[in-house]
Specification:
Structural class: alpha+beta
Number of strands: 4
Number of helices: 4
Order of helices and strands: HHHHEEEE
Radius of gyration: 17 Å
């Protein structure tokens, strides 16, 4: 999992807290209604942290703008890459 976090910064927080998320899953999987609100809330926080680490900017509640990317037309295709 560390390799995923190294390649994709948006996964860093989730990977770092994977044991905590697993524990919440085990705890809340017993809910008869199938809901896991603690897990969901924790994952939202960690996903937001990952977006910030990957260069995303929060533009409003539940709204994000991704990092700057360059797109280069190449025949029928478009090549897209991050501007680092």
């Amino acid at each position: 999992m560390g390799e995923v976090a190294a390649k994709f910064p948006e996964w860093t927080a989730l990977v770092r807290q994977w044991s905590e998320l697993t524990d919440l899953y085990k705890l809340e999987s017993k809910n008869k209604n199938g809901m896991a609100p603690q897990l969901y809330d924790r994952m939202k926080v960690l996903i937001d942290e990952g977006r910030i680490a990957a260069g995303w900017v929060k533009t409003g509640p539940g709204s994000w703008r991704g990092p700057k990317r360059t797109e280069v037309p190449f025949g029928k295709f478009t090549i897209s890459f991050d501007n680092d």
